[in-house]
Q: What sequence folds into this?
């Protein structure tokens, strides 16, 4: 049985949409249900880890991006998004959601932030 070209094109679009939905669902599934308490930061404030996921788009699975998750955490009242470098164990690109500031290449300065890197990177290495 021959399937008309228009129908084939429609099926391809439907399958592509379904795969994007599955990929998005997979990324969401890596988040945690509630924040995990990590301990006290070097500033004396509480640190909570909210979860992580990769943000690599169409890069091949062999690209190093897939081994470096983006995580969301808080120190005190400040919410922070950061891309970790799991190999070097640093916060590579850091964005303060609360204050709109950007930072680069921070080393963890407390056992709480070190613990967070260990937990986040364990899923991706």
A:
């Amino acid at each position: 049985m021959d399937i008309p070209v228009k129908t084939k094109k429609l099926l391809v679009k439907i399958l592509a949409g379904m795969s994007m939905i599955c990929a998005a669902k997979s990324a969401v599934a890596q988040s945690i249900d509630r924040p995990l308490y990590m301990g006290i930061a070097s500033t004396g404030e509480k640190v909570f880890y909210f979860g992580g996921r990769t943000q690599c788009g169409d890069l091949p699975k062999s690209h190093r991006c897939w081994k470096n998750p983006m995580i969301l955490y808080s120190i005190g009242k400040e919410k922070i998004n950061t891309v970790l470098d799991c190999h070097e164990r640093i916060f590579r690109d850091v964005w303060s959601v609360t204050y709109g500031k950007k930072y680069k290449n921070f080393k963890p300065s407390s056992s709480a932030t070190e613990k967070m890197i260990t937990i986040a990177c364990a899923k991706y290495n």
Observations:
- Confidence is low (pLDDT under 50) at residues 15-30.
- The chain has one domain: 32-122.
